[in-house]
Amino acid sequence: MKTDYSDYKNILEEILELLRTYNEDHWANYFRKSLELLNKGKPQKSIAHSIGAYGGMGSFNDSLYFTGASEVVAKRGFTLSNNLYLECKSKRSMIKRALEF
Fold first, then answer.
1. pLDDT per position as a tens digit, 66-82
2. What is the pLDDT of residue 32?
3. Which ranges constitute the DSSP H helices of the chain?
4. At what angle are helices 71-91 and 6-21 packed, to 10 degrees?
5. Confidence band, pLDDT 50/70/90 cuts, at residue 101
6. Distance CA 37, CA 82 (A)
7. How far apart, in whole angstroms, are the C-alpha atoms of residue 101 and residue 93?
8. How far apart (Å, rounded) are the C-alpha atoms in residues 49 and 30?
9. Residue 14: burial class (beta carbons within 10 Å; 0-12, 13-18, 19+)
10. What is the mean pLDDT of residues 2-11?
11. pTM for this structure?
């Protein structure tokens, strides 16, 4: 059975757009790599890369600001960040990742 990664991809694309718009260049570049891995047919490597941004000092959830964004836009960004983490956790599979070459 093949896993559907469309929700993951949609979240990644939307958060990338916000990150670029609000000059969060470091994180935009980080998640651009996740999207590239997904587009190359390596969804589990993409998920592992994305989830690596969470946790620890200076992590994505600690250093995300959306400077200059309205309250509504910033709230959407933080919601997307949370949704990305939850989507990664729900789709992560060490077995599938090991099979990606």
1. 889 999 999 999 999 99
2. 98
3. 6-21, 25-39, 43-51, 71-91, 94-99
4. 150
5. low
6. 21
7. 15
8. 9
9. middle
10. 90
11. 0.88
